[in-house]
Amino acid sequence: MRRTLAALLSLILLFSLHIPAFAGDVFGQYTSELPAEVAIHCSEEALNVMGVEDLDKLVRMVKYRAQPQAAELLRTSFPAFEEAARNNQLGTQIGLNILYDDNNAPMASVIWDNNLDDEDRFFLSYGINVNAFTLAERDEAGNLIRDPQTGMLHMTTDNASLDAFACILTHEMMHVFMNDYNRSGMSGVVDPEVSFLPAYATDEDAAAAIAAQEATTFPKWFSEGCATMLENAYMCMQESYDELRTFGGGGLDGWYSPEDLRFAFAETALPDGMEPEEYEAMADMQPSYDLRASAYVSGYLACQYLSELAANSKGISACSYTPDGFETIDSAVLRSGLNDILRMLHEGVTLDDIIYSISDGRFYDTEDFERAFITDDDDSAIFTASLLNYLLRITRENGRSFPANGSVLYPFDVDYLTQIDCTKNAQSGLYQIIDSNDLVGSTANLDGVSDAGKSLSTLTYRSGAMLGAVPAYGYDGDYSYPGDPACIYGGYYN
Ligand SMILES: [Zn+2]
Fold first, then answer.
1. Domain ranges of the chain
2. How far, in Å, from the CA of 177 to the mean position of ligand 1?
3. What spacing in Å lies between the alpha carbon of 108 and ligand 1's midpoint?
4. Pick from 16, 26, 270, 326: CA 20 to 30 A from residue 106's CA?
5. Could you read off the pLDDT of 40-75 as tens digits, one per residue?
6. Whole-number Å distance between alpha carbons of 417 and 231
7. Each residue of 75-91: pLDDT tens digit?
């Protein structure tokens, strides 16, 4: 039986990424001397623009250095992932596609797809896209440098660009880990019988499938917020965070206050002299808007706050005061709170129920939290102001090379760009890049796992459903994927 997710995909297809498949001799002159890994992973356009030698360097940097380090960083930073890895509940392989796109495609992104195998068993597949354009050598003004002889581009050797890539890859890998560990909320598939519609499905079936998917899928602020907690979020979105304290009229010299945050998040206030467009940009901050600023900028803050609440429910807090009265925030406590939230989801507690219980009922469910966060809840506004003030105070310290990073993977006051060294070889048993530029079926064994998404828990995954996945599956060249469109915050550090 041929089933399709088409109706559902159209809902979430914010942005589709077309991946050219490697087919035989499309590279013409290069074919004979093309290194196997370049032939497998790189698009024809990337090859035409950057050439064999530099793409070979790029593939190796991603495959043997950045990617295994990012996987190990996540495994060792979260006990929940460590345990899942031991139980084969995280995948061991993934595809890599190196494209060239000078039109706003992000530096890296994760693509995934929900599939049924020949026996109608659900499995998930995923792959990493890397945009060679964003890793090409540039001059100090940010312009591409072309080889004077060949006109080709070279891969950057600039540490800052590689560090930016490493941060984004860490963010992307969090999506991949959650694709397996928190599959319901990431995939939106609660029951393959409901989610995958036969071609002859009735309107009622389609409506039920869409309703189930909406009730299961994590809101974007949550899936992006979790991933953004691990990257250099404060550093690379500093402008947006600055707006949260200057929006109400204060200058850049000021500090954050709960009142200014509430003002910036509020739907109703339109200050004198402010243009409606400007106002809307800030109103986008509300998590419920499900837009770029809300997903990344506010998603980061909202997930930090939920992590603090999860810690509070165990009697600890990330916030404390130094003897001279300065408030400090312990990133390890927030990381541990996030770990607990992911684990509860994996064990079948919905995000609705988690939010209700860790807030002692202050937020009724996910939707109520989205509505009230900062805007209509003092505790969240006070915590968020404290966190941002702490990061700002670190940023203003004398002698620093960089602004505060903002990742919970390291102490907030460490002066660094990224935890990953793209010049260092590494190995990981998780999500190793295999010989495929396509989506690769997850090997995670979720036999017996009944995890939870936003408002629904899955049926227990059917025995062997994941094990039936093939490493890579046929690609018909005319397919689009629900992608992860907006992981674009790294930009370029020159
Ligand atoms: Zn993302």
1. 3-219+431-441, 233-395
2. 12
3. 9
4. 26
5. 999 999 999 999 999 999 999 999 999 999 999 999
6. 9
7. 999 999 999 999 999 99
